[in-house]
């Protein structure tokens, strides 16, 4: 969302209008689900995606035409091979795309996307809310957990973790609260931070060695902090919105972090290490009063089983598991 919001703001600030394409509904097998967005600009370039392939090719062509006529529109696409109204794809689903004209002369639109861009760097939930009157967007606002800023009447149950469409309201979770706390600033963490950041996580590095918690070592991290592994609560407050990855330099530090985070309620808790090391860690935790059910929350060995060996491969494996938890595919 940050790169998309930045591109929109840059275009509007330069006096150039654009067409914002959004997947409104999707059924069956489709390349992208509701909420996927593509911004198409006057020079023919685009940022974002609504699925690639013929869908995106056709959507971009429609967006360019609507941009010239300064219009909003709804279009349906069938992804069924051989169907007269289809795009010749074999996915077997249907998409409804909404096309919204964003004028560079509308100061309120620019202000909204500037605010959205700023929100992408903050640790709070933010939704993009649009009011649809048939094809036309009649109003647009940002909302937090308390509701929209300036747009009354939105049912608050539409502020969900997934895009929602009902009675002319379309809500899109644009920014999600929660940090990815990575304990340990070694080689695997260095590989993990850029991969996780690319798919929307906000990594935060914590290490007890200043050189391994240096911001310059992790330019894509939301933050870094040097502190003791035995006194995390002095520096951090981990919430149910957060993700915890433990990959310190040694078994004792891993154990110390697990003792302090196992009951914190984080959405994800994973620990790197061999099965032998993790079994020893489990035994120590049980001896210290933790239950087998509590330890069962730990993703250990960490990451999806893809045969990862190098730090870069492990980063992909861990990020894939984080995505699966965020999407609700695994607990």
Automatic annotation (TrEMBL):
Domain XdhC- CoxI: 12-77
Gene3D superfamilies (alphabetical): NAD(P)-binding Rossmann-like Domain
Originating organism: Pusillibacter faecalis
Domain XdhC Rossmann: from-to ranges: 180-322
Protein name: XdhC family protein
Regions that span the bilayer: none
Alphabetized InterPro entries for the sequence: MoCofactor_Util/Proc, XdhC_CoxI, XdhC_Rossmann_dom
Any single Pfam family the record assigns to this protein: XdhC_CoxI
């Amino acid at each position: 969302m940050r790169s998309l919001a930045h591109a929109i703001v840059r275009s509007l600030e330069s006096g150039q209008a654009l067409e914002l394409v959004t997947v409104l509904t999707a059924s069956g097998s489709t390349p992208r689900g509701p909420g996927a967005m593509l911004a198409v600009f006057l020079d023919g370039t685009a940022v974002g995606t609504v699925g690639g392939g013929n869908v995106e090719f056709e959507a971009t062509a429609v967006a360019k035409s609507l941009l010239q006529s300064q219009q909003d529109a709804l279009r349906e696409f069938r992804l069924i091979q051989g169907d007269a109204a289809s795009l010749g794809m074999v996915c077997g689903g249907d998409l409804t795309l909404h096309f919204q004209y964003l004028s560079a002369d509308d100061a309120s639109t620019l202000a909204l996307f500037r605010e959205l861009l700023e929100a992408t760097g903050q640790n709070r939930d933010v939704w993009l809310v649009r009011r649809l009157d048939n094809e036309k967007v009649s109003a647009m606002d940002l909302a937090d957990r308390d509701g929209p800023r300036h747009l009354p009447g939105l049912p608050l149950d539409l502020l969900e973790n997934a895009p929602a469409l009902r009675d002319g309201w379309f809500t899109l979770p644009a920014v999600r609260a929660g940090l990815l706390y990575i304990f340990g600033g070694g080689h695997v963490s260095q590989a993990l931070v850029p991969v996780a950041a690319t798919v929307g996580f906000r990594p935060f590095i914590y290490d007890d060695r200043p050189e391994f918690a240096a911001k310059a070592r992790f330019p894509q991290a939301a933050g870094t902090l040097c502190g003791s592994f035995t006194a995390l609560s002095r520096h951090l407050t981990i919430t149910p919105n957060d993700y915890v990855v433990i990959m310190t330099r040694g078994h004792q530090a891993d154990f110390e972090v697990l003792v302090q985070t196992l009951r914190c309620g984080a959405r994800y808790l994973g620990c790197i290490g061999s099965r032998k090391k993790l079994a020893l860690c489990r035994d120590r935790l049980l001896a210290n009063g933790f239950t087998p059910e509590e330890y069962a929350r730990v993703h250990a060995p960490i990451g999806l089983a893809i045969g990862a060996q190098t730090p870069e491969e492990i980063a992909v494996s861990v990020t894939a598991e984080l995505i699966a938890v965020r999407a609700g595919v695994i607990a």
